[in-house]
Design a protein that fits this description.
Helices cover 0% and strands 59% of the residues. By secondary structure, it is mostly beta strands. The strands form two sheets. Strands 2, 4, 5, 6, 9, 10 and 11 form a seven-stranded mixed β-sheet that branches.
Length: 123
Amino acid sequence: VQLQASGGGLVQAGGSLRLSCAASGRIFNLNYMGWYRQVAGKERELVADITRGGSTNYADSVKGRFTISRDNAKNTVYLQMNSLGLADTAVYYCSADDLYYNDYGAPVAVKYWGKGTLVTVSS
């Protein structure tokens, strides 16, 4: 599975950006899809994720400002980011968990990562 992210860039504080990430390749069943971000010298942190059924989960720092959505037919996940602040500056990574069943019938989830896209918020 390959993940291709787009939509990062430079934006002024208070502005908005929309990230997209499309999955391609040999896909079984994309369950969770999500966005993480990382600042140099810090650990990668979850921003938001969404299940195939549409259940969402957000980091407290982005609740009310960011919205995650997905198009299952296109294997694509989106992140609408509003009211961006300086603290949102980071490299954003999309991820996807592909679920399949092994020869013994046990579920196996494999996590894939896209290359990061840089979001820079300026004052």
